[in-house]
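Worked example 2:
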Amino acid sequence: MKFLFLRCIVISFFFYSAESRACSAFLLTGKDYNVVGFNENWKTMPGMIVVNKREVLKRNISWKNLTTNQTQPNKQWISKFGSVTFNLLGYDFPCYGVNEKGLFLVELYLEETTKVYNPKQPDMFWAQWIQYQLDNYKSVKEVVDHLNEGPNIDWWPNAAGSHFFLTDAKGNSATIALLNGKYTVLKNKDMPMPLLCNNQYHKDLTSAKKFDFLGGNEKFDFNKSTNWEDRYNRAYYIMKNYKYDKKPVDYAWNILNSIHPGEWQTVIDTKKMNLFFKSDLKKEVKTIDINKLDFSKNASIKYLDIHTDKTGTVNDHFQNLTVSKNSEYLEKGFPIGYDNKEFGTSPIFEILKKNIVKFFENILPAS
């Protein structure tokens, strides 16, 4: 079976052609700017942007919890930070997101992924693992420092997996890959350019070093290097040539559009805490002012469709997320994410839908 878009990054997955699993994430950073960019390249997908609040009691959810009658949690926590996330699979299962402290985390497909297993820790479905980090930590260092004492990442059945790209508001970045049963972490000093696609970082970097813009002997022709496998080289080239012009957000969009625009595209200015996004169905750039979102305990959990018709700053267009509305999104999203049409009509999917209602009925209002 194939599975989701974990594929890329979030999402890109596993047994597709190179074109179908091409995601790209980067950090454009300097003294006066700190801007994240992400392309989700796969196919047209439904999805919602969720405003997740603080002080919510959460429980771990594994694939077994989702698809069997074994629904008891092994781990609970209370969210410390609010966040804005992009969710294909419904509430608490984001593909990527940023929290109110400026921590950004996204997954990108990586075929070589293995499982890291700590018998003292519970399993947690990969998408919820992203939310767990955003709920609990405010910096790259905190995430990395707690990896081995955190929950085990539970991938889709029979799937490869992903690696992760994360950044924080202070301009730190890291990649996390699960290789040979261990977390492999590259941080600032290990990455000449904070940029990640769908190969292990060192493989893409080694390949790029043959070109003249990194001291190699081969001339890099930007206009002719337009294949999917050229995404890392193209992004590196553009990022290396950036001269601060007080418009880093515009430059980040230029990077995204120059290395193959994604079906979902996101740019986040973590100094000003402004988030910009667009989709393949609604190509106008929208803005979310994260500073003006209500993440407080007594606030409602809000959502906005990724393909919204609204334009400009869309803070006022978020609506209350309910159990029934969440069910609509997960019903559309899981078969697409799993990349398995039969799954959408299977008895297991019926169990999954009922279990998710049960898991979140004390968090989301019924309707």
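The chain has a mean pLDDT of 93. Residues 65 and 71 are 5 Å apart (CA to CA).
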